[in-house]
Fold this protein.
Amino acid sequence: MKKVVLFKSASEDYERVFTDNNYQVAFVEPLQFTFINLDTLKEKLSQNEYEGLILTSPRAVEAVSKCWDPTKFVTWSTKRVYTVGHASSQKITLLLGLEALGSTTGNAENLAKLIAGENSKTSKFLFPCGSLRSESLPNILQTQGITVDSITVYETKENENLKEDLMALSDSTQEPCCMVFFSPSGCEYIHRQLQTFNNKLSTLPRFAIGNSTAHKIEILGLDIAGVAAKPVAESILESVNSYFSNLNN
């Protein structure tokens, strides 16, 4: 049974998809998060000046949930909530009780085009986001005349246990067959740590959850074995299977 390293927090969905297809899964979280500006966020959520809410990461959803009050924020159930990715969409339903649009768009650029196509040029959206956010989404919307009120609600840092986790992974009896990366910042932290000790990981095939992560891997001067067509476990599995199938032919 091949062993796949997923550089993300443990996920039942990913565990199930890979184990059902004869892979062993090792989760390594390269990031840690600190929530900030929650008082300001709560104040903005209380205002009735927005047409909708944009949440492009699970952490942004968690930040909103920390100051969420369904009795005070009833008006949000009548507004549009946009997201990108299945994980964020699930969290919006679970933690906020709202239905999200755009979960199948695949990336921020496609999501921005969807929002621009469905809303008037005078619209205003609240965009809780992380300290390392890409400016592509707000930039695209602003060129369409849509106002984006961005507020940083969490900071992303390197997981303090990352090197220890990577060393344990490299020393494990069953060597991994490949690594899957889920964020540009995660790529950078992992690459930096792998340069500090002798390991079996640096030569493994690398897969990316999406184009921005793949681009970061390329910037680091590394090869990419595959990029998931969609940011879901099934697409990553398909990319991994395709790579090894072609390798064996």
Observations:
- DSSP finds ten helices and ten strands in the chain.
- The longest strand covers residues 147-158.
